[in-house]
Design goal:
Two copies of one chain form a homodimer. Chain A has 767 residues and is mainly α. Chain A is 66% helix and 5% strand. Chains A, B: It is a multi-pass membrane protein. Chains A, B: It is found in: Membrane.
Chain lengths: 767, 767
């Protein structure tokens, strides 16, 4: 797979598969019955109505040849047409900034590619093809493509100066573009925050680790503390109930209701036969029962239990966790409370900006300080194990899943297994599939780890699991492809090597792996992005739901799965392309066009998806940007060290001091940007708070902020609830019953804090 | 120098020299003429008066045999007598906490030594003396002492389990003691801050990087900004003048005045001969002049220039730097402003707690943000060069200073140089002296580097230079003693070794270096501390000043040099003893008693010095403690890795996982303590601010805070000044002339921000 014609073939195959996905998309999106799969965003906005299905079906197929081709091109300008401010308005700042990452890739790599093709390609091509590799290695990975790579330059040649100069140029260009982008995103964020309408989280602070008081309840203690220490600013607060058990019950009930609907539909269609189910697990075994009757009874039983539990939560003082949402009279007051330390002991009365209500991860609000530290330690060790030992459990499962064990456990399968084709399938594919499944569920494992670590907002959970995923991909995909063997073997190899040898090992392997990574970009990047726009999994699930569950138009709306950007998964994968581009920009510039095509294509696709499909669960106002920035710089530093190692194998060791300057400058640039911009993503400046407060006081002097904030931070389980809720009212310091209204559809939907990243939404294939 | 008898001799010699210092101290401190050298603290407090010098001088010498010996023991109980609260009151919290570090050393090492002697010594001694070293190495460093060290345990022996268990016990004990101490110091600090009287810095925030405004002066801009964004809290502010040139003039004038006094005194003593001086550099050459006349004229000239410059500074708007001290109505308001971000751009309107007035480093208040970042980058690179290349310039100077070059440059010295004894002195001692001089001025170099980095308080400058000094000692003294060769050669050696080999190299060398470090502890530790109490350099300087400059009692007071703890120098050196104790606790426990004697002796000496001698320049309320804590933990981690390396050379590689747990736990412990305690040293909690404010409002309702704060943050150059000062008054927004009173003596003295650490104050010999 090493010479140019091989790559051409591979590119052709992958372009074709990408084209097939696009064609399938072009066909499927025109079918009215798929409209809710490909345009759910517009339905959620209430702008789009179901297209009439009365027209003659055949017409679409008749027009296929001509119109389809037009349509096939059609979505591209449509995706590009919407201007950025409108896009922010339509899909939120997170989405708008997210697709800018692809644009950033283009901004970085197009000029780099032009320079590299103009300067480095001629320098490499006219070099003497002085092979330093052994013949076997040459057979493996060296081919015509290497005529254009640094491998073609003979060791200790003066030509290598060109590569060093280019490394400088590329570093400065990348930093320049990153600086401009950071500045622009910061401005966008600040502008977005400034132009936002009034939101409860602007006035609210989350206080955790409220110390126990023998004489006062948590609620009283919180109120007295803030009345004393923020006398002019304190307005109202909301204690947090531990409603985890109740939430589980509600989920269970929803599941039962779905089953009831399924069987009712079945009965409606065939009224002659009452549907039956079995009492055991998942209706698979046990006594045969009348399904409709059984589920109706089960739901009633659960409803009663739910009411009991609901009352217990509200009335039992032990169900109140030592945390509260404290709201202030002004944004200024909240900004002050969030940024300052309240008491001597920094592990008590910890204040931070409240996440927006949809973003709160309720389960973790009550973890005490010491436990939080222990959890982090354990998860740190577990993550280390996950990176370096993840192949052990997989190997174990694979051993279990081999022919002999299967035969032993399930002897009746023996005749089947012993048939040649089945046997070879099991032996050939099963190990690979186990690994594939692991990589598919890896983001979910990382998300669970982040939850155990005890973060209190979905956005933080996602950021943390994204960080872990990035490290995993860096070690096990990038390094794992270069230094063969398991991560543990690599680690041992690196530890046994001297520090100055490590970059050499990596540097030596880098040019040889260029063709592998080009193929990777085409398979994972090109075809993956095309698969993303086709949305196969949501398509299938939607139609299954449509057949079995949907009765009314409202049901159909609920069956829609718009999905979301799932950036904790896509962003770390995306970083791999930045890394590859930066590493190969000086080594094998031929790789750059493939990266550029990926970024351009992905930009189009994701812009389309953001406009027509995805529905973000919360809005963090691009708070993930510092992570994106940092990770690109990590890629830049890795690229500098690999070049350093590569050149030292080229007997150009005296270039080392020149190249060592680059990582130092890059680290300094990182720190500079951090100081300059990061606080805009972490803190809320007082001046802006004051401006908004003053404006609001002038325009709405009669605003009743207290009632506006009262129920903003209520556990979602109480918001959608139908029973009455005992609530603590601050005005007259006594408990009375307040009927809570059913929250608006949007609030209820937003309240479901299902934060497992959903791998279905990303067309990328893991590894 | 390897066997027990050698060490006994060395111990005897060093104990004797320490004893000699103590004896000299005992004699000298009784002489009334030395009273101001050994008890300056009491003079400064105004408690002690000069002892009468009228008694018969001979009496002291008569009583010498008997009384002196009693006195010699006498200062020890006196040093221990003062209880800690009184000590804090007398010498400040910084000093009281500083001497607790020595106590901490005792708390850590006494139990460790008991356990190590009880468990490890028998285990080591009964091991088979299986030598793994080559014969030449054995001759070099192995001796009887190794019978008690881990070297005596044969490789792969089960006995090594004892060392691993002890490593765990020592780690947990050290962490436990450190935790208790951190907690105690935190409580002391908080109690100290809470019981402090009203101080200007409690109400004041330093704001830097005030953006330029075309319509307003800096002063107006500051006032408007804080009136808007802290409406209820803003009280008054003080702009900062760039008076660096003026300060230089004042220093120059002081110097000239000293010369004038010197010549006047000379003339008084011998009125027959008018003293003369020369006009050239330092009075060494040039035209001969009448000294008194010449200096009187010079002073007059300078005074006139000074007045002009003083007026320029006050009237020229360009002399106002974009920084200001902003004071608030309450501590609460200041705490809020110091801890929050003011504007979108985090590089503007940067607020932080104002250092106390004595602590401000005025020269650095005006550095803009970008320049600050560039300065830090340059200093980082320079520091790296200083660590790894400091021997190059020294070698260069040494080459210049060899016989041949001296002969070439100064041929007339040839006959002198060629005499045997002089030649051997130059060749034998000069290179060593050059190195010694470098190490003596190193702290000053590091302080200059910290100043260039742009920190704005003397306490921060000292903390930063201490951190650099610690790293320097770690690399060039500890590692440099173990891995011979220059730091650059070491670095190369480490880079060329594999990561898993480095601990082995160090681990192998550690037991061999035990005797070297025991000698080091005695020379640098024991004798050094004894020299500290003797105060030779201040003694000589005081008497020189007394002879040449002192005329009145006030002059004599100014001639006193109480010095200060100079913790940026002593603390990093001290850390070396913690490191050695921790490293050798499992390897060669015989080293521990030497460490314990050092800590006990140093505790006594420094307690005496703090009570009787030192006068701290500012009070940071023990804000250095997090650094002390961190550095001890760094020592602990180094000790764990060296043991790990040592055991892997002992063919006990399977112990590695057990020992790897320790650094992980230690790092976690560090993070835990950081979260738990550090903010008490960095932030001022709102609750405490509120309590103090409320109390003050109740007890002193009539307090005029504005006039109290008005001149607190004035450049010291204006405080001591005699000319009138134009001042900006906030009440009526116009300039009028306010006569500033001569500041009180204490304030003026405190205002001299001479912050170069003074190596004279520490008896430690560098390396």
């Amino acid at each position: 797979m090493a010479n140019v014609s091989d790559i051409t073939v591979s590119a052709a195959i992958n372009s074709l598969s990408a084209l097939l996905f696009l064609l399938a998309f072009a066909i499927f999106r025109l079918q009215p019955m798929n409209d809710r799969v490909y345009f759910p965003k517009w339905y959620l906005k209430g702008i789009r109505e179901a297209p009439s299905t009365s027209g003659p079906l055949v017409k679409k197929f008749v027009n296929l040849d001509f119109r389809m081709y037009l349509r096939f091109l059609n979505w591209v300008p449509a995706a590009l047409k919407m201007p950025e401010p409108e896009l922010i308005d339509h899909a939120g700042l997170d989405s708008a900034v997210y697709i800018r990452i692809y644009l950033l890739g283009l901004k970085i790599f197009v000029p780099i590619a032009i320079l590299a093709f103009g300067v480095l390609l001629p320098v490499n091509y006219t070099g003497k093809n002085f092979k330093i590799m052994s013949v076997s290695m040459k057979d493996l990975a060296f081919g015509e493509i290497d005529k254009f790579s640094i491998s073609n330059v003979e060791p200790a040649s003066k030509r290598l100066a060109a590569h060093i100069v280019m490394a400088y140029v590329f570093t400065f260009w990348t930093c320049y573009v990153l600086y401009k982008e950071y500045k622009h995103v910061t401005d966008m964020r600040l502008h977005f925050l400034a132009s936002q309408v009034r939101r409860p989280d602007q006035f609210t602070v989350l206080v955790r680790n409220v110390p126990a008081d023998p004489d006062e309840s948590v609620s009283e203690h919180v109120e007295h503390f803030f009345r004393v220490n923020h006398p002019d600013q304190y307005l109202v607060h909301k204690v947090v109930y531990n409603a985890n058990k109740l939430a589980k019950m509600v989920d269970q009930k929803k599941d039962l209701k779905n089953r009831l609907i399924y069987y009712s539909n079945k009965f409606e269609r065939r009224p002659d036969k009452r549907p039956t189910t079995k009492a055991g697990f998942w209706g698979l075994w046990g006594k045969k029962l009348d399904a409709i009757h059984y589920y109706t009874e089960e739901i009633e039983k659960l409803s009663k239990e739910e009411i009991v539990e609901r009352e217990r939560v509200i009335n039992d003082p032990k169900a109140v966790v030592p945390a509260a949402f404290v709201s202030f009279r002004s944004r200024w007051g909240a900004a002050i409370c969030a940024q300052t330390q309240q008491t001597k002991n920094p592990t008590r009365w910890i204040t931070m900006w409240a996440p927006e209500p949809r973003d709160v991860y309720w389960n973790n609000l009550s973890i005490p300080f010491l436990e939080l530290n222990v959890r982090k330690l354990i998860m740190g060790v577990a993550f280390f194990g996950l990176i370096f030992c993840y192949l052990f459990p997989i190997a174990f499962v694979q051993t279990l899943a081999n022919i002999e064990s299967i035969e032993k456990v399930l002897p009746f399968l023996k005749p089947l297994i012993n048939r040649g084709s089945v046997k070879s399938f099991i032996q050939g594919f099963l190990p690979g599939i186990v690994l594939k499944i692991f990589l598919l569920i890896l983001p979910m494992i990382l998300m669970e780890m982040a939850k155990i670590e005890g973060h209190i907002a979905v956005s933080i959970l996602e950021a943390k699991s994204a960080g872990k995923y990035h490290i995993f991909l860096l070690v096990n995909v990038f390094l794992g492809s270069i230094v063969t063997g398991t991560a543990l073997q690599q680690l041992k190899q690196f530890l046994d090597q001297s520090a100055s040898e490590i970059p050499k090992t990596v540097g030596l392997a880098i040019p040889m792996k260029a063709t592998f990574f080009i193929t990777y970009i085409m398979v994972d990047g090109w075809a993956g992005v095309a698969a993303e726009i086709f949305r196969l999994v949501p398509l299938v699930i939607y139609h299954l739901k449509n057949v079995f569950l949907v009765k009314t138009e409202k049901d159909r709306e609920e069956a829609m799965d718009p999905g979301s950007l799932a950036w904790p998964i896509t962003e770390p994968r995306l970083q791999l392309y930045f890394l590859l581009g930066l590493v190969y920009s000086t080594v094998t510039p031929l790789l750059l066009p493939f990266i550029i095509i990926f970024f351009a294509f992905a930009y189009l696709v994701f812009r389309h998806q953001v406009i027509n499909v995805y529905n973000q669960k919360y809005e963090s106002a691009a708070s993930f940007w510092p992570d994106v920035h940092r990770r690109i710089l990590i890629g830049l530093i890795i690229s500098q060290f690999t070049l350093l190692g590569l050149l030292s194998t080229k007997k150009a060791a005296n270039s080392t001091p020149f190249l060592l300057v680059l990582p130092v400058l890059t680290v300094w640039f990182y720190k500079f940007c951090k100081n300059r911009f990061e606080s805009a993503f972490r803190k809320f400046p007082l001046q802006d708070a004051m401006i908004k407060d003053t404006l609001e006081r002038a325009t709405e002097p009669q605003l009743d902020l207290k009632s506006y904030l009262k129920d903003a931070y209520m556990h979602p389980i109480f918001k959608g609830g139908e029973v009455e809720l005992m609530d603590f009212d601050e005005d007259d310091d006594d408990f009375h019953i307040v009927a809570t209204k059913r929250a608006s559809r949007r609030g209820s939907q937003a309240g479901t804090t299902d934060c497992s990243p959903d791998p279905r939404n990303t067309g990328f294939n893991a590894v």
